[in-house]
Amino acid sequence: MRKLRSKWIMIAVLSCLIVSGMFSAAPAEASPGGDGVTFKGRVFGDPEKIATPITKAGISGAVVGEEDGKPVFYTSVNAEVASFQIVDIRSNTLLRSFPMPGVQQAWAHAVAPDGTVYIGGIRTSGQTKGILWKYSPATKQIVELGEPIPGEKSIWSLTVDDKGNVYGGTFQTGRVFKYDPVAGTFTDYGTMVPGQEYVRSIAYHDGYIYAGIGTVGDVVKLGVTEATAGYKQSIGAEVPGLLGVSAAQVPFAYDMAVVGDLLLVKFQGDLYKLLFYDLKNGAWLPHVVGKDTENGGTGVGVFNFAQLAARDNKVYIPANGHLTELDLTTFQATPLIRYGTSLRGAAWVSFDDLPGYPGQSLVSMKGNGEIAIFNVDARTVYSMPSALIGAPNPIHNIEVGPDGSLYMSAYPAGLGAVYDPRTASLKNLILEQAEGMVAYGTDMYMGIYPGGHVYKIDTTQSTPVATRVFTIGESQDRPYIMKTMGDKIMIGTIPGYGELGGALTIFDPSTGEHKVYRNIVQNQSIVGLAYKDGYIYGSTTIHGGLGTSATERSAKLFVWDVANERKVTEFALDIPGIGQSPMISGLTVGPDGNIWGGVDGILFKMDPVTHEILNYKNIYPDITNYGMWRPYHPYWGKDGLLYIDLADRITVIDPRTLEFVRLFPESLEVKFMALAEDASGQEQIYFADATDMGSLQRISVTDAQYERPGRLKLNGPDAVRLNETIEVALELEQANALYGFKAELAIDPAVWTIESVTASDDWQSNGYMTWSADGGDVTIVGTRLGDNGYSLDGPLAKIRLTAKSYRDKARLILLGESETIRIDGDVTGVTHRLGSDFVWPVTIQTEKEDVNRDGVVTTDDLISLAGRIGAAIDDSNRHMDLNRDGEIDIADLGLVGSAVFELRR
């Protein structure tokens, strides 16, 4: 190609030698190759599932029951379609598994006196709701019972009374319900504490339900039998004093169990303390079990429990990193066996064939389905591997690491994945729920929920390991947005339960120090960040942590001065039609240096200095009032296009024209997406969709294959005023590895004056262009430099012209002799002619009072019109009938006179 390219460069430099015969070959028609959606020279394939990156048996709760005379675990494996599973404890074999269509999670399980198992299912895909199910150990069948309270989003807790009635606690308005298995009916007891959204724990004793409340903790005693009906009262007045906090600071009453005549209540938050309520005497005992480092305790406090196992007036709880023996006479807590997780079910079971475990042992199930067997006398523990059928875990985040791999976390948490798109290899790692991720140096940083922790992975190591770096603090819980800013990392967060007011955190990896700036926008959280020239551009959601109601009406943008640690300004978006949108996100600095972002279905561009909205487009007008926490994810492709999950729809946008295409329109909801390179260096789209959250999916992106390197055309205004200067663009469409072009134009020199011809920025970056004019013949020649082929649709050059003569129908003509050449032209020997003239019509207008059409309104126009008063109207003088009344008369002369007078004033 050197010979041909040298010729092009010589032509570009020596414009005086431009000749019409420098190209030869017949024109070739452009035709896209292959299937898929073609947009701006790119072909987008159909979505394909390429991996199930995170598969495990993840459970949230379990209970021990008895079936066919054998002790069994009843539990539910969380998945896109959750499954209820039954495990024989002694043999550690799976007996049965039942899918629960429409359910993704189940935290609560309860066993009735007749052995029936009730499951509190939670649907999280689409419309979130709580659904009650039951399983019969007699019939070995599972049945959906329905939605106990329409509108409630989850069932968090279940218990049963001695007659087999089922009681549950819900989230959204903190209600208690009853299911009567004989009548098959539900009873709604209403909200327990006005303004509190959760009944997180529940227990039954002697005609009363005890409901554990959140987000501000409390315990409500509710009468549910004929003898106790109508009784409803908080019994939590003494709790703040026992916990050592104010009433407003009491955290979730998270777990609850009745042991004898005691109600044990674990309060969560930062306390992890267990309190005791004397059911017989109706009083709280003074004893508190909390964070302790005595006898090897880790000081983490009391963990979660679904059942508690008691024996000899002692109960066994998960506390301070151990299975802990709690004496219910002295309330002395003694750590027995190292155990760092919660008790998901607990009961005494004998294992005759397990050496070293005589008599009865306490059993519980771990979050991954393993069964833990505790010999409390010998202080030993034995783990049996999970017998549960695993399922794909929903992907909760996707981001490209510094090594080019895709890093993913899952929900429920516990396992993450690293997928290399160049080799299609997959690795798993232990990882909690990462709300945000960002690559920095050779490390991948993750913002972990709950607790607002920041972890990192050293991507240079062959085995990925996540290690904790720091905790944000300031009551921040969900680090949803993480971006780099020079040599630092900026993080936007959502606060914890019951809290309003997110924060901006700036972390310096070189020193390990971080600063937290909370409530930059009062009572709003931060979900969008971009950095440019010493300023952070942030955007917010009006929502705070769970258990809160928004106090502000509209999300805002803000500007933060990094050096002076101060907010410069905050403001709502001034875009027609958006109303009071709850969230603005997807902020990014574009190649043009402006700030881009998304709100509802709108893409906007903002000047970083003046903060003026320079342009916007309502791409999805059907989307309004969108958003809570999860932000949009924008990526600038190497092809100059913007890729973004705008309104949860994969959207590709040309930033120059705001033209767009939506990919995968059948998608229910794209929750996360990223752009990563394959082995050839081609960027591909990777995403997780709500229709199948366990699968990593890909949309292939390839260059459109056209026979020609592109088709030249003109684009400009269709009207211009006399003496006005306009810009007409020489554009390229169906671009494909263009190396050079020659555009031949015919422009009437009596009508137009050519002021200048300049190359577009995209062409100029790796190319050269020159032009010449000979009368009305204009030639523009452009060539690329080196091996830089050009595949961008859009402007190649801007032609500035001034209209100097009135014309109803002026024309700019791009002649059919115009030609283009591909980067492989030296091999093929083919150049490509336009073939037929491309005509751009333009009307050159003047003031209607300028009747002699010389470009100005003067007394000469009065004289011209006066000489034609009373003349019959024809094409030569029709424009003189200014008032369009069918006559050239004194009224028309008056209009011209008025115009002359105004101009002279």
From TrEMBL:
The lineage of its organism: Bacteria, Bacillati, Bacillota, Bacilli, Bacillales. This is Cohesin domain-containing protein. Residues 712-805 form the Cohesin domain. GO terms for biological process: polysaccharide catabolic process. PROSITE patterns: EF_HAND_1 (PS00018). The keyword Coiled coil does not apply. Residues 1-25 form the signal peptide. One of its GO terms (molecular function) is carbohydrate binding. CDD domains: Type_II_cohesin. The keyword Iron does not apply.
